[in-house]
Each structure stands twice: as structure tokens, then as C-alpha cells.
Specification:
The complex is a heterodimer. Chain A has 19 helices and 2 strands. The C terminus of chain A is likely disordered. By secondary structure, chain A is mostly helical. A two-stranded antiparallel sheet of chain A has the order 1-2. A two-stranded antiparallel sheet of chain B has the order 1-2. By secondary structure, chain B is mainly alpha-helical. Chain B has 25 helices and 2 strands. About 1% of the residues of chain B have low confidence. Classes of the chains: A mainly alpha, B mainly alpha. The interface between A and B is large, with 66 and 60 residues.
Chain lengths: 492, 665
């Protein structure tokens, strides 16, 4: 038994969070130190990752660096503390680490109760990390709910004028979804006849279920995870939450919380209930196409920069759902790549919207414009984010979208034309936004507006660096993802 | 002994040098007090790239039979059930062969000259670090595209070329018309790009399922030139899905090369600096579309339906674009329409099955079109207007420019021995040779021949308006004078090419280059005037066009059409570009935006409205439920018992029934 690195990381984040809450005015330094240690530990996890075919000897089949301890032992049921990583979770853990450090640096100037603010940021990341490593249903649910609470407070306390409404809407939507998900997960355990809450035993039991119960279970889980995605028509909490949330909250909301839905769907529904996915496929396709079209078209009509980015998230997560629904290994790889790409790029875009708000006192594209001469650095960052999001090659979204659409062609042939055509609309709303906000004659710029402070630039710079790195070398991520034994993938 | 051919593995140096230029000039340039040095730095990088490009072209000319492929694996996915039985590999690499060497030469020569010219032309502008950085990236992307060794990598650079042109067209971003034109260019080409993507998907899929087993997994879907086009062999050249793929590739090329009906963006792209127009029109952006068609036709192959579609688009565009150039008063836009028209000839040749003939026309066109734009830029630099009707008499004060524009015009009009004659004549005789077996090509051939007359007319109309006569028609124009030497040298060099580039065709090594480019694909290139009668006709039409221009506009005359003239409606139609732009705006801006607003309304009031309706319903409900909170313990006990009974019923009866009914494992 080597270093229990996953538990150590959870412990680090826990200690870091508590210390940040208590650190008062030095909270940002504690948060930064925690992020640095967290990144170091992620590096260790990568180094220790046995990948394919080392998983064979692992404690939990298919997972590396796994740990399992009995937690609650009943005569008929064992609940364990079981954690482990595979390629999919590893990529999302990397995303968590990158977003955490970027957000902490970006928020360096936060002056409204900074200790609580940074503490809640770290708590959100802790919960997300937990969700990505948990291999026991109760543990998973615990972390899942742990994410909800800090985000509620981030929106509700640090948010904009409508924060109470937005925070409650966010909480109710995601909580109702959580309950359906929990019922689905519990039913999964009982129907599969599993004697523990562990992923491996549920996996073994549920896959042999017949198609009908699999379908019902799948639909319950799909609803639970789908609201987090968010899928149309259960999406209206997202724009409201984003518009009201503070920048750091928005970044984690789009970058991590939406990914929890995607990850949950892959881990606890797609992998476990193949026949269920097969039966429910038409529903998933329908919802995915609807989200793709709806998100993109709605973005076109937005005047608030943040709302625009929020609707574009619905579009991108729709492509993720489409890729997952394809039920092919290529689609699954594309989905994970896309989630990573969207996490980084939407983080960049939400940060720049936040900076626009700080600098000009408004995010209304229609009333401010021509900002490039005033804030060249911010303009460049907005441009980079927009171009990345609309799928420019050499930036991270391109290889992900390419793979997703290629998989769509393989699975659905000419249906691929729908998401392809929507790519034009996506390009249109970003270009139009840039034309109005960045170019043209300056208007609506308050006197004394100056370019962004160094920490906002540094936070976004980190995300730009990863956007370019993985845009040029997507193979680094793909090689990690394919080391997961998904869908009969034989491994590299 | 080190031979020139050893350079082939280092073709990546060209894009690499330009990327370095992008980074260094872009980052360091803003720190410089006086930026002149930054501009010269970019020129230096372009010069180094030029040296590499020329050496590679020279080596290829020495031995046209070689081609060199260098690559590394980008990412690799093994074979998996249901997806890609042969595995899936994406590679990145460089391929140096006759075609890419020829294109690399064009890109580096024109790129260097435009960069040099910019030192003089852009002297007074702001934002020069950005200008030179973006220009460098543009050249990097284009040279990368030229030497890309597979369609995926090709597409990657293709998009980068598109985004660079977006930046450069919108260079004067504070002008609303410039940022609008940049957006339009990106969006219209984006329509082509998504079609191109679908084409790639179909080809990938077919290669993966029918390609050589293990080929994909080991090497990726790499261009292999000089052999039979892959799909022609694999599928017998006929299949519906391959026809669709071919049409998609045509769509991509039509977007980039501004072919009908995706031509609308190119005239508006004149909002960028003239140097950028020269680069876009000669060597980079629009050339990429034709190059894509040529590469696809040589490597993958088109079905006969595709070929007819390509011929139709190309042939129609030659004439369609030329008509719009006939009436336009803006010197740059006249040349812009001529580009669309000339690209039509290239597309036409590729469609008829003569990819190398199309590329030969691309080669000569690059020089005389860059020449025309830079000469026009010289005029604009001198008089500060683009309106032909304000100019006049500039011949006297700008002798070099006037001569350069005339040489470019003669080459464009296809007058021997200027470069354009040889290549245009090749295109026409190539298509002519296919007419007996493909009678459906006839109308498009006739349109292309008719366009020769219009071409000669409109370009000399522009020359006479600008240069002939005694003095400018608008007396407020500043006194014109030639630009500095950095602007004159490119004009002279390009003039030499515009005169002589066509004569290359008589050089055996150059012939060998074209031959080996086409390879064993059964696509013989056509050399020289194959059909004398046809050549005579096209020269006659060219001379007649110049004559008409002289008759109407020579000696500073201005030919004014009476308001009551019956052709006035036609003139208005042409000036309004057949109302295409209006239609696109109407569909794109008004139509889609209205839909988006409506969707926004649904989102706010129907979807969220429903949610709020539920919210009110629950509020109401809870208000009523509150009344059962009586505070009487026995009431609560009753509820508890009722609840327990319900749970027991569920557990004991309903659950086992469900399990029995649906199996449960």
C-alpha cells in the first residue's frame, strides 16, 4: 500500500478550507497556498496513475489509486469509504485544480468578507473533487450536496441585486434534481441486489438487469444529472444564477458544477446501465439537440454579456450530452474532452465578463462599446475566450468539438448537420458581441476607466495558457481518457 | 554531400519563422518607442521564410519526382468495436511535393513583397505592432496549410487563415464598417467551413472502413500524391455519400474562395488596408479554397456529379463577378470582383479534372493580382481616395505605378505574352477538351469565354479613369507622387513576374513539376495554346474589351449613361450586387435575430412562466396545508399512522409486484 494520495488530497482541501475561513485578512494567502498544494497533489495523482492495464491489480477494478475502508456496516448492507480515479475523473480533477488556482488569483482583490469568500470557493472545489473520486453512492451524494451549499451562499451573499431570487431558484432546481437522483441511486442499489454501495458491486449487479428496470433507473438518474447540465427546458436557473453570482462563483458554477452533471451521468448511469441508455437514447438525442439549438439561438438575443455566456454554456453542454448519448467510445472521449474544454473556456469568459463589470460598471453590450482602446488587455482576453469558445483550432475547444461531431457522424450520419449548422450561429453571436463591445467608436465608458488589475489578468492568463497548451496537444488529455475501460475500449 | 533536397524535411521552418515573427513583433513591438524596427524585423522574418521557400521550390524543380513527408502522431486511438475498425490516428506533418512547393513559393514571394511594401504604405498608421504580428500569423497559417499533409491539419490552418483575415479586414476596428465587414467575412466563410467539416467526416469514415487495414492506425489519413485518387479506387468513383462529401468540399472552397453564392464577403473585405487585400487576393485566404479543391481532386477524387457542380459554380462565377466589376466606381472593388472572377477560372479547371491547370492559373494570378492591388494601393496612398471618378491624369506624376497597373491589367486581360494569357488559355483549352465527352459543361464554358471580354473592359476602364487625361477630375485631390522605394521595389519585382511567370510553362522542369503534381491520376496537364482558334478568340475578345474601354473612357473621357437610358435598371442591379448583400443581411441579421428574440420571449415567459406558475401553486397549496397543523397531538398521531400504513402497503404489496413484473435481475 502506497501513499493514500486521494484521501490526503481531500484532507488537504478540508484543512485548507477551514484554515481559510479562520484566516481573516490573510485568507487569500491561505487559499493560494492550499491551491498550490492541491496542484502538487494532482501532479502526484497523475504520476501514480497506473492507467491501462495496471487497473487489473487495483483494489477497485478499473480504478487506480483506490482506497476502501468500511464506514457503516449493517447486516444487509455495507457502506464504504471508497475512492479511486480513472482517466475520466483524472481529467476533471485536473480541471478542478486549474480552475481553483485561477479563481483564487483572479479574486485577489475581493474585499467583502474575504475569509468567507475564499473559504466557500475552496469548499466548492473540495466538493467537486470528492464527487470525481467517490466510488460509493453515499459518499458521492455527500460530496454532491456539499457543493450545493457554498454555491448557494456565494450567490446569495456576494451576488447582484436579484441574488435572493437567483440563489433560491438555483437551490430549489438542483435540490429537487438531487432528490430524484438520490432515489434513482438507491433504487439502483436495491434493484441490482448489491450488498454494498460501492461502484464496483453496483456495476456488477446492475449491468445484468433487464432492459425495463434499467430504463426506468436510467431516466430517473438522467433527470437528476440533466438538470445540472442544464438541459432544456430545465435550464432557466442557470442564466439567473450566473447573472447574479459573483465572478468567482460563476467560474466554478460553469466550470465545475455543470461538469458534475456530465460526470455523474457517465459514471453512475451510462456505464452502469447500458441497456437503459440504449432505450432512452432517442430522448437524450432530442434533449441534446434542443439544448444545442436553444442555447445558441438564445445567446444571439442577449444584451448582458454574462447571460450570453451562460446561454452558450447550455449550447456547449448540449453537445456534451449529444456525445454521451451516442453510446460509443469515441463519443465518450469527446464528451470528457468537451467538458474539460468548456470548463477552461467558460471560466475565461466569465472572468472577462466580471472584469467588464468591474471596469465599466455594466455588462450591457448594447450600451457600452468600443472598449479596445481603453482596455487592450481585457479586449484581447475577451477575444481569445470567444474565439476559443466558437471552436478556433489551436485552442482547446476545437479538438473536442471535432471529435464530438466526428462521433456524431459515425453514430447519426446526416443528423450531424444540425449541430454543424448551429456552429455558424455560435460564431455569429460571439462575433456580433465582439463587434459591439470591443470595436467601433467608444461609448458608455465611464471617465477614469483603466485596464484590468494584474491579478485579474494573471487569473485569466493561467486559463489562456491551458487553452493553448491543450489546444495544440490534445493528445495529452486523450491518452489519459482512453486509459479508462469504457465501452469495451481495449486500451492503448 | 548535402543536397538541396535535404531541405524538404525543414519545410516547417516557414510557418515556424512566421510564428516567431508573430510572437516577437507582437510582444516586443509594443515596448518599442519608435516602431520602425519592429516592421523591419517582420520583414526580416518574411525574408528568411522566403529564402527557405525559394530553396525548397528550387530543389523540387531540380527533381520534380520527389516528395517528402515528415510527421508525428497527434493522437492515436486504437481500434474499437463499432468505431473505426482500423483504429483512428490524427497526425501532423509536412508534405513537400510539386504542388506544395509551388504554392509555398507563391506564398513566400508575395508575402515578403507585401510585407516590404507595408513599411512604406502603413507608415502613418497606428497599431503597427498588431498589424505586423497579424500579418505574420496570416503567412504562418497559410504556409502551414500549404504543406499540411492531411485534411485534419489542413482544416486547422484553414480556420487560422480565416481568423487572421478576420483580424486584418477589421484592422481599423474603430470604423464600424470595417468591423462589420470582418464579421461578415468570418460568418460567410464559416458557412463553408461547416460544410468542409462534414466532408472531412465522410472521408474519414470511408477511409477508416474501406482504407488499407492498419494504414490509418499507423500513419493517419495522409495525402499520398502521385497515385490514383484514393476514393476513386476504393469506391469506383461513384456513390451518393461521396457525392455529398464532394459537394461539401466544394461548399468549403466556395466560402473561402468567394465563389457564388458565398461571394458576398470579398468585396466588403476591402475595408482592410490595401496591403491586406493584396495578400488575401493573391496568395493567402482565397487561394486556400482553390488549393483545397485541387488537393481533394488529386488525392481523394470527385464523382462526376461533383465535377459538374464544380464546373457550374466556377464557370458561372467567372461571368457573374465580372459583370459587377463593369460598373463599380471604387478602384479596389473593381479589382476585388476581378479576383472572384479569376478564381472562377481556377475552380472551373479543377472541376473539369485539370487540377494542375487551375494551380498554374493560381500561380500566375497571384503575381499580377498582387501587382494590381499594390499599384492601386500606391494610387490610394498618393491621392487619398478610392473613387475612380475623382482621379485622372495620374500617369504623369506616377509613372512606375501607371506602368505597373498597365502590366497587371494586360496580364489580367490575357494579352500575350503576359502571364495571364498562358494560364487562362490553358484553363479554357482544358475545359474545351472535355466538351465532347461532357456536353453539360457547354454553358459554363461559354460564360467563361464571354467573361474574358468583360475582364479586359473593366480593368482598362479603371486604368483609363485613373491614369489617362490631363489632371484629376476632383481638383481638391492632393498632388500625387510616387511612394518611397520600399513601395516601388515590390511593384517592379511583381511586374517582372506578371510579364514572365507564364513563360515558365515552356521550361521543362516546370512542366515536370505540373506533371508530377498530377501524378499517375490520369490527369494530363495541358500545355500552352492547344487550340489555336480558341486562343485567337480569347485574345480577340481581350483586345476588343480594351478597345471598348479606350473608346468610352480613353483620354480622360467620362462615359455618362443618360438617366432615361433603358440599361439604367441593369446598372442599378449591378451596382447593388444583384441585391445579394441585401438578401443576406435580411436573412442573417433580421430573420435570425427575430427568431432569437422570439425564443428569448418564450424562455422568459413560457418556460420560466410555467415555473413561476408552479411556484404560486405550491404557495397556495402550502397555505392550505398549513391549516392541518392544528397543534392537536392526536391529529398528528393520526397522520403518522396513516403514513406508516401507506409505507407498509408500498413495501409489502406494490414493490414485490413491480419486482415480479419487471424481473429485477
Amino acid at each position: 500500500m502506497t501513499l493514500p494520495i486521494l484521501s490526503l488530497t481531500i484532507l488537504t482541501l478540508l484543512v485548507g478550507t477551514v484554515a481559510t475561513f479562520l484566516a481573516g485578512s490573510r485568507a487569500r494567502w491561505v487559499a493560494l497556498a492550499t491551491s498550490a498544494v492541491f496542484l502538487g497533489e494532482i501532479a502526484l495523482i497523475f504520476l501514480g496513475f497506473s492507467g491501462w492495464p495496471g487497473y487489473n491489480g487495483a483494489l477497485v477494478p478499473g480504478f487506480s489509486e483506490s482506497e476502501s475502508y468500511v464506514w457503516i456496516h449493517l447486516s444487509w448492507m455495507r457502506i464504504n469509504y471508497t475512492v479511486g480515479v480513472d482517466g475520466i475523473s483524472l481529467v476533471l480533477i485536473l480541471l478542478t485544480g486549474i480552475l481553483q488556482v485561477a479563481t483564487v488569483i483572479y479574486s485577489w482583490g475581493e474585499s467583502k468578507r474575504p475569509a468567507a469568500y475564499f473559504g466557500l470557493l475552496l469548499l466548492t472545489c473540495l466538493g467537486s473533487f470528492g464527487v470525481f473520486v467517490a466510488l460509493d453512492i453515499l459518499l458521492f451524494f455527500l460530496f454532491w450536496e456539499a457543493v450545493l451549499v457554498p454555491m448557494f451562499f456565494l450567490i446569495g451573499f456576494w451576488g447582484g441585486p436579484q441574488r435572493r431570487y437567483a440563489a433560491l431558484k438555483f437551490f430549489i432546481y438542483t435540490h429537487v434534481a438531487s432528490i430524484v437522483m438520490l432515489v434513482g441511486l438507491l433504487a439502483l442499489v436495491f434493484y441490482s441486489g448489491s450488498s454494498s454501495f460501492d461502484f464496483s458491486s453496483v456495476y456488477a449487479g446492475a449491468r445484468s438487469l433487464s432492459a425495463v428496470p434499467q430504463t426506468f433507473l436510467f431516466l430517473a438518474l438522467f433527470f437528476g444529472f440533466g438538470v445540472k447540465f442544464p438541459m432544456v427546458p430545465f435550464h432557466t436557473w442557470l442564466p439567473d444564477a450566473h447573472v447574479e453570482a459573483p465572478t468567482g462563483g460563476s467560474v466554478l458554477l460553469a466550470g465545475l458544477l455543470l461538469k458534475l452533471g456530465g460526470y455523474g451521468l457517465i459514471r453512475w448511469a451510462v456505464e452502469v446501465l447500458p441497456s437503459g441508455l440504449h432505450t432512452a437514447q432517442p430522448i437524450l438525442f432530442f434533449v441534446a439537440f434542443l439544448s444545442i439549438v436553444w442555447g445558441s439561438v438564445l445567446s444571439l438575443s442577449q444584451r448582458d454579456l454574462k447571460r450570453l455566456v451562460a446561454y452558450s454554456s447550455i449550447n456547449h453542454m448540449g453537445i456534451v450530452l449529444l456525445a454521451i448519448a451516442l453510446d460509443s467510445s469515441l463519443g465518450l472521449i469527446a464528451a470528457v474532452l468537451l467538458m474539460f474544454a468548456h470548463g477552461i473556456v467558460s471560466g475565461l469568459l466569465f472572468m472577462s465578463s466580471g472584469s467588464v463589470h468591474h471596469t465599466f460598471g455594466s455588462r450591457d453590450i448594447a450600451s457600452i462599446g468600443g472598449i479596445t482602446p481603453t482596455t487592450p488587455a481585457l479586449s484581447t482576453l475577451i477575444m481569445t475566450g470567444s474565439l476559443a469558445s466558437l471552436g478556433l483550432p489551436a485552442l482547446i475547444s476545437f479538438p473536442a468539438e471535432f471529435t464530438a461531431l466526428l462521433a456524431t457522424w459515425n453514430g447519426l450520419s446526416y443528423w450531424v448537420f444540425l449541430p454543424l449548422a448551429i456552429l455558424v450561429v455560435t460564431a455569429a453571436f460571439y462575433l456580433w458581441m465582439m463587434q459591439r463591445l470591443l470595436f467601433g467608436t467608444p461609448r458608455g465608458i465611464p471617465a477614469g476607466a483603466h485596464d484590468i488589475p494584474w491579478y485579474e489578468g494573471a487569473g485569466m492568463g493561467i486559463l489562456v495558457a491551458f487553452t493553448v497548451l491543450f489546444g495544440i496537444l490534445p493528445g495529452l488529455l486523450v491518452n489519459v481518457i482512453v486509459s479508462s475501460p469504457i465501452h469495451g475500449w481495449p486500451g492503448p | 554531400m548535402v543536397s538541396l533536397a535535404d531541405l524538404f524535411g525543414y519545410a516547417f521552418l516557414v510557418p515556424l519563422l512566421m510564428v516567431l515573427s508573430f510572437v516577437i513583433v507582437g510582444l516586443a513591438g509594443t515596448r518599442l518607442k519608435r516602431f520602425e524596427w519592429g516592421g523591419w524585423l517582420a520583414v526580416g522574418f518574411a525574408g528568411a521564410a522566403l529564402v527557405v521557400g525559394v530553396l525548397i521550390a528550387a530543389a523540387e524543380l531540380m527533381d520534380p519526382s520527389r516528395y517528402t513527408n515528415v510527421q508525428f502522431t497527434w493522437f492515436h486511438l486504437p481500434a474499437a468495436p463499432g468505431v473505426f475498425p482500423n483504429g483512428f490516428s490524427l497526425v501532423a506533418g509536412t508534405l513537400v511535393d510539386p504542388i506544395s512547393a509551388l504554392m509555398l513559393l507563391v506564398v513566400t514571394v508575395v508575402g515578403f513583397l507585401v510585407m516590404l511594401y507595408s513599411i512604406g504604405y502603413m507608415h502613418h498608421d497606428h497599431g503597427l505592432p498588431r498589424y505586423y504580428a497579424e500579418l505574420s500569423l496570416f503567412l504562418a497559417a497559410m504556409s502551414g496549410l500549404v504543406i499540411a499533409n492531411n485534411l485534419f491539419e489542413f482544416f486547422l490552418f484553414w480556420e487560422l487563415v480565416g481568423v487572421c483575415s478576420y483580424f486584418l479586414i477589421g484592422f481599423y476596428y474603430e470604423k464600424p464598417s470595417a468591423s462589420s465587414a470582418a464579421k461578415e467575412a468570418f460568418l460567410v466563410t464559416r458557412v463553408g467551413d461547416v460544410m468542409f467539416l462534414l466532408g472531412i467526416f465522410i472521408y474519414f469514415y470511408y477511409y477508416a472502413t474501406t482504407g488499407p487495414s492498419g494504414g490509418w492506425a499507423a500513419n493517419g489519413f495522409v495525402f499520398v500524391r502521385g497515385t490514383t485518387p484514393f476514393l476513386a479506387g476504393a469506391m469506383g468513383g461513384q456513390s451518393t455519400v461521396l457525392t455529398v462529401a464532394g459537394i461539401m468540399i466544394l461548399g468549403g472552397a466556395a466560402g473561402k474562395s468567394a465563389q457564388f453564392p458565398l461571394h458576398v464577403w470579398l468585396p466588403d473585405a476591402m475595408e482592410g488596408p490595401t496591403t491586406v487585400s493584396a495578400l488575401i487576393h493573391a496568395a493567402t485566404m482565397v487561394a486556400a479554397g482553390v488549393y483545397l479543391l485541387a488537393v481533394t481532386s488529386l488525392f481523394i477524387g470527385f464523382t462526376s456529379t461533383d465535377q459538374l457542380a464544380i464546373v457550374a459554380v466556377g464557370g458561372f462565377t467567372t461571368f457573374f463577378a465580372a459583370t459587377m466589376a463593369v460598373v463599380h466606381p471604387d478602384i479596389k472593388r473593381v479589382i476585388a470582383y476581378s479576383t472572384i472572377s479569376q478564381l472562377g477560372y481556377m475552380v472551373l479547371a479543377v472541376g473539369a479534372g485539370f487540377a494542375m491547370v487551375g494551380l498554374f492559373h493560381l500561380f500566375t494570378h497571384a503575381f499580377f493580382k498582387a501587382l494590381l492591388f499594390l499599384a492601386a494601393g500606391s494610387v490610394i496612398h498618393a491621392v487619398g481616395t478610392q473613387d475612380l471618378f475623382k482621379m485622372g491624369g495620374l500617369r504623369k506624376s506616377m509613372r512606375v505605378t501607371a506602368a505597373a497597373f498597365a502590366i497587371g491589367g494586360l496580364a489580367l486581360a490575357g494579352i500575350p505574352p503576359f502571364a495571364g494569357f498562358w494560364s487562362k488559355d490553358d484553363v479554357l483549352s482544358a475545359v474545351y477538351s472535355q466538351l465532347p465527352s461532357h456536353p453539360a459543361y457547354w454553358p459554363f464554358f461559354v460564360l467563361a469565354v464571354a467573361a474574358v471580354f468583360l475582364t479586359a473592359y473593366y480593368i482598362f476602364r479603371a486604368w483609363f479613369l485613373a491614369f489617362s487625361g490631363d489632371k484629376p477630375r476632383d481638383p481638391t485631390l492632393p498632388h500625387a507622387h510616387e511612394g518611397p522605394w520600399v513601395m516601388q521595389v515590390p511593384l517592379v519585382v511583381l511586374s517582372a513576374f506578371a510579364v514572365g511567370a507564364g513563360l515558365f510553362i515552356f521550361w521543362p522542369n516546370f512542366q515536370g513539376l505540373l506533371l508530377h503534381g498530377a501524378g499517375a491520376a490520369g490527369i494530363p496537364p495541358v500545355y500552352g495554346p492547344a487550340d489555336l482558334a480558341l486562343s485567337a478568340t480569347s485574345v480577340f475578345l481581350g483586345v476588343a474589351g480594351i478597345g471598348l474601354a479606350w473608346a468610352l473612357w480613353g483620354h480622360g473621357k467620362v462615359f455618362v449613361l443618360a438617366d432615361s437610358s433603358p440599361v439604367q435598371p441593369l446598372r442599378r442591379l449591378l451596382l447593388n450586387r444583384y441585391y445579394f448583400k441585401v438578401g443576406f443581411d435580411w436573412i442573417g441579421a433580421k430573420g435570425v435575430y427575430t427568431v432569437a428574440r422570439a425564443a428569448d420571449f418564450v424562455d422568459r415567459f413560457v418556460i420560466d412562466g410555467t415555473v413561476h406558475g408552479f411556484e404560486r401553486m405550491f404557495a397556495e397549496l402550502s397555505d392550505r396545508l398549513r391549516r392541518i397543523q392544528t397543534g392537536v397531538v392526536s391529529d398528528y398521531a393520526a397522520y403518522v399512522v396513516a403514513g406508516l400504513i401507506a409505507v407498509f402497503v408500498l413495501l409489502l404489496f406494490v414493490a414485490p409486484y413491480l419486482v415480479a413484473k419487471f424481473g429485477g435481475g
